[in-house]
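2024-03-11 09:14:02 INFO worker-7 job=invfold-0412 stage=load source=structure_tokens
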């Protein structure tokens, strides 16, 4: 019979959990991997995270937290590689992952948990070599992104779709963030429903919580009596920052009296298609005539991001595609209502009409109406903030870790049963 799960090999090829979320390829997945690993450690499950080294100064290993080790794997040149370049480095990455296990005592790992399809490709090789189950979390998929891509976003390549299909077939268990994502894997990739588990991501309720709004606004040099409508995330078309900016223009046309009190922070760094036109959003702000209310702010560390959420009157998440939407959950944990698009996991992350508002489509006029309705109804906005706190409280990472550990257990048991059946 299989024993308890003691150590997990977690694979995150293209982005490190130590990277700053909100810029480049770093985002919600980085937060997910690190927070999950921390909580697994609290359950006495050690996690070793394999990620690609992106600098010559990257140490071979970093102790990210008690029971959490990040291993930097040298695979290809340190700089200048995009996600689309990384499949060519898979062999080098696999080689070093296998070397770590080979240099240790036998049966070092009980489970492999891969994140994003590139990691799943690596994990499928390690699974067959080590004889342990592969649990995979997609985070995003090519077919879903291609159905929802915005202006300026090129299609995801066909070879990524093929690679994702291979990972779906090779995985012993597939973890999705919502039922909607599970249905997409089943319908678009032919995943076996019996091998798909839904585990909601969490939010760090010790880091993200209510704060004195006047105090945090003063710390951030924001007017204490302003209407603060904020966007947080990577600056690329897929995340919809342009939708917020166009909505603000319409809002000010319809409600010019709000101009003197409106502040629109855009917090995040360039990513994806945004890297091709780094000045595009700045130029759009000038074109729309709203440069007096918009403030561009670089991505900030998680410990500082809570101040920004708490300072906001509301947070806009107009993503064209979103597997879950950790930004929406983090904002609500700080007591800030969210206006979000009704796509992907956002209907799970946001309780429509209670902790925020879900908008169908990406018409800036619809977002302008939703923003105006809340800003001009302060009692409703305050009530939503209270409900947002209650809603976010049910999404702690401890619960995510417990449910994920259960999935690992099902993977181990299924693989054990297959071996017994062969005997």
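2024-03-11 09:14:09 INFO worker-7 stage=emit residues=423
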């Amino acid at each position: 019979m299989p024993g308890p799960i003691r150590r997990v090999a977690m694979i995150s090829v293209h982005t490190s959990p130590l990277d700053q979320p909100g810029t480049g390829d770093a985002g919600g997945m980085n937060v997910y991997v690190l927070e999950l690993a921390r909580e697994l450690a609290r359950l006495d499950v050690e996690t070793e995270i394999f990620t690609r080294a992106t600098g010559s100064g990257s140490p071979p290993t970093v102790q990210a937290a008690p029971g959490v080790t990040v291993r930097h794997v040298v695979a290809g040149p340190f700089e200048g590689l995009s996600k689309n370049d990384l499949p060519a480095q898979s062999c080098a990455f696999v080689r070093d992952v296998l070397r770590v296990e080979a240099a240790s005592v036998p049966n070092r790992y009980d489970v492999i948990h891969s994140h994003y399809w590139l990691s799943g490709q690596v994990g499928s090789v390690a699974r067959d070599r080590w004889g342990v189950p592969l649990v995979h979390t997609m985070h995003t998929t090519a077919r879903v992104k291609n159905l929802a891509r915005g202006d300026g976003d090129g299609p995801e390549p066909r070879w990524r779709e093929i690679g994702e299909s291979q990972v779906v077939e090779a995985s012993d268990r597939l973890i999705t963030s919502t039922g909607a994502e599970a249905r997409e894997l089943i319908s678009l990739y032919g995943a076996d429903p019996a091998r798909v588990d839904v585990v909601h991501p969490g939010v760090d309720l010790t880091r993200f919580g209510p704060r004195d709004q006047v105090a945090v606004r003063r710390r951030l040099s924001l007017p204490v009596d302003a209407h603060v409508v904020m966007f947080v995330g990577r600056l690329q078309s897929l995340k919809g920052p342009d939708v917020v900016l166009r909505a603000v223009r319409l809002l000010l046309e319809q409600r010019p009296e709000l101009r003197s009190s409106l502040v629109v922070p855009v917090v995040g760094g360039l990513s994806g298609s945004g890297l091709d036109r780094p000045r595009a959003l700045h130029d759009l702000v000038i074109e729309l005539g709203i440069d007096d209310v918009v403030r561009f702010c670089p991505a900030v560390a998680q410990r500082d991001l809570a101040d920004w959420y708490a300072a906001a009157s509301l947070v806009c998440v107009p993503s064209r595609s979103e597997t879950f939407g950790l930004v929406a959950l983090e904002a609500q944990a700080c007591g800030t209502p969210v206006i979000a698009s009704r796509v992907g996991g956002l209907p799970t992350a946001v309780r429509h009409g209670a902790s925020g508002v879900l908008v169908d489509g990406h018409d800036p006029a619809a977002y302008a109406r939703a923003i105006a309705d809340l800003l001009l109804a302060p009692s409703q906005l305050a009530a939503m903030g209270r409900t947002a706190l209650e809603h976010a409280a049910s999404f702690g990472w401890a619960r995510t870790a417990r449910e994920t550990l259960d999935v690992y257990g099902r993977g181990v048991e299924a693989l054990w049963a297959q071996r017994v059946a062969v005997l």
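2024-03-11 09:14:09 INFO worker-7 stage=report msg="The chain has a mean pLDDT of 92."
2024-03-11 09:14:10 INFO worker-7 job finished
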